[in-house]
Amino acid sequence: MREFIVEADGGSRGNPGPAGYGAVVSDAATGETLREAAEYIGAATNNVAEYRGLLAGLRAAHELDPGATVHVRMDSKLVVEQMSGRWKIKHPGMRPLAADAARIFPPGRVTYEWIPRERNKHADRLANEAMDAGARGEQWSASTSTAELDTRAGAGAVDPRGDAAAGAARAREALAAGRAASATSAGPDPEAGPSPVPPSAPGATEQRGGDGASAGAGAGSATADDDVRAAGVDAEVRVAGADADVRAAGADADVRAAKAAAGPGGVPAGVGAAVGSVEADDVVRVAGAGADAPAAEADSDARAPKADADHGAAEADADAPTATDTAKADADARAAKAVATPGWAPADMGAPATFVLLRHGETPLTPQKRFSGSGGTDPSLSGIGRDQAERAAALLARRGTIQAIVSSPLARTRETAGIIAARLGLDVSVEDGLRETDFGAWEGLTFAEVRERHPDDLNAWLASPDAEPTGGGESFAATATRIAATRDKLIAAYTGRTVLLVTHVTPIKTLVRLALGAPPESLFRMELSAASLSVVAYYADGNASLRLLNDTSHLR
């Protein structure tokens, strides 16, 4: 099933006054502009012009593919909220327009997102071109429009596909370059984006490229705005953006980096800390095998050697002499397959199951940096934690993309989920498989206290995912098995939908690790804050795409 992005805008010089609209239809997988539409509509209000722009964009998308799904982005809060069903349509003049828009595609096939005006420049320029043409006594003509070129020029050298989509596209390009390099030791620059496509035909509606234009990119990919709208944040995400990041994610460089960072016994250097969870994240962020540093300060110290190790191998690949080009290309190809496979899949793969992963808000144990798993006192949220949950709820309500909520059975997650559910008007389902790891006898202790009382058990736990915490707790390997089974169950239940999973540090990090195909020690290398948002999308062919990690912008 194809997916289109529709951006629409309308304006009135006088409100009411001379008015016009603009609309753009682009391919969600590639960002390629497929159609533009604009029209001067005479005297009207801003809101009427905005609705007319929406209608034009949806109709153009329907003409391209009546079976597609559509994500509409507009800077009109009124239109987005009314078409999402959250606001009533009181103005009698807009009810017929909204009804017409709702009939173009079947229910459930169109989603809506509010975006700032600066992210809607293409449609805004089209609307102004239409009003300018009306002032001259003319109608807008695609053959004379410069809206797309002006928008790209104004954005500088920004890849029009957006951050995450551009990252996936660059990964696909890296795969192509890798194949070429294997044969000829040369290939296209994987960082190069597509050239702007100039207007090609006159008329009030313009089509570019047609169905074949995006075939190379693959309809299974999703745009950065897909990634971000699921989590409810703007597109500052850089998770999959750079080729070097993609390369490091899937290539042998990770293995070399992990070995370089490993201390005695295979424990990553500087890690006593970054361990997967305490809610282990808070406790174990401290120091390595030797000494315990204040947890608040240790994070940056623990990250420093890790960063050197992680990036060293990737930089070595980038700077390697010609003789290693083929090996580098092979690494790129492996990374591209791991990250960008959805873009190579058949067009009928359908919409992914998108998991918006929310770590619960703070509890009284969180600032004390104590192990808090599923075998302890099961604390509730603190006042700060409830405020964090309210902020997350406000963000998700603004975006309006969550279709279901599933929570871990523990009190802190159920309370967080309840606050959000009340705001979104949804019910909460409880899934036992989303519970936190059981930390056994370590529950309620700080990392330093565990090191003092159970040093051998702690060292074994840090060195192996199969080791259990003292007293018969749950190993990370056992947690991963449980989480994988829960993931598969939820993917089957929520195929093609966006679901909020309210859970804990270890389950979220494990879902991310499994999505990336990363080794168990990667749990030690992720930061996950209280009430943070992460996003993973799961496709019908079994591939997954990490779209967001540890976003806390809603808390600032």
Overview of this protein structure:
With 556 residues, the protein is α/β, with parallel strands linked by helices. The protein has helices spanning 46-64, 77-83, 95-104, 121-135, 147-154, 163-184, 224-231, 243-250, 252-261, 295-319, 325-340, 383-399, 411-424, 447-453, 455-463, 476-493, 505-516; strands at 3-12, 17-27, 33-44, 69-74, 110-114, 205-207, 353-359, 404-407, 428-430, 498-503, 533-538, 544-551. Among the domains are: 3-144, 2-Layer Sandwich (Nucleotidyltransferase, domain 5), CATH 3.30.420; 348-551, Rossmann fold (3-Layer(aba) Sandwich), CATH 3.40.50.1240. Strands 5-4-1-2-3-6 form a 6-stranded mixed beta sheet, sandwiched between helices. The protein has a 6-stranded mixed beta sheet with strand order 9-8-10-7-11-12, sandwiched between helices. Helix 1 runs parallel beside helix 3 (95-104), helix 12 runs parallel beside helix 13 (411-424) and helix 14 (447-453) packs across helix 15. 53% of the residues are buried. Residues 300-314 have a biased composition (Basic and acidic residues). Residues 191-201 have a biased composition (Pro residues). Residues 176-190 have a biased composition (Low complexity). Substrate binds at residue 412.
